[in-house]
Amino acid sequence: MTTALAFGFLELSALLGHEQTLPGYLAQLTEEIRQDGELRRPIIVDRHSLVILDGHHRAAALRELGCSLIPTYLVDYGDPVITVEPRRPDIPVSKESVVSTGLSGRPYPPRTSRHVLPELPGRPTPLETLRG
User: Fold this and answer.
1) Residues catalogued as catalytic
2) Strands, E assignment, 5-67
3) How many CA atoms lie less than 13 Å away from 63 in the CB half-sphere?
């Protein structure tokens, strides 16, 4: 895995999304997390820009559940071990466009990009911990 990997709890309000979410999937995931009482997998965020690379629905679900913190793997997005692929033939993506889109406040449609990186371990975290 990338040598610049760190785990921590970040303020949800500090994170920037580069994709919109799907309302139906968000509602389903929110209910699943509520019933589980925990978030099983941290999201993945670029450590420099704080743009979410993977986990937009998890972040939105925690907001819906009144959480202020989220377990996060912070990665160096410039590391060549991390790649991004387009999921939509009509919208090209690159690492640069993902960051600029996240910083712009005008996110891509849902499921526009797919990040490929080595699998990171789950870290189940109780919702009580994430409510700050």
Assistant:
1) 19
2) 6-11, 38-39, 43-46, 52-54
3) 13
Maximum separation of any 2 CA atoms in the chain, in Å: 41
- Output DSSP code: residue 16: B
Kindly tell me the sign of the dihedral angle through the C-alpha atoms of 88, 49, 10, 14.
negative
- How do residues 55-95 score in pLDDT, each as one tens digit? 999 999 999 999 999 999 999 999 999 999 999 999 999 99
According to CATH, the topology of domain 6-130 is: 3.90.1530
Rounded Cα gap, residues 92 and 53, in angstroms = 16
Interatomic CA distance for residues 28 and 39, integer angstroms: 14
- Please state, as a whole number, how many other Cβ atoms lie within 10 Å of the Cβ of residue 34: 12
Position 35, amino acid: Q
Q: Where are the domains of the chain?
A: 6-130
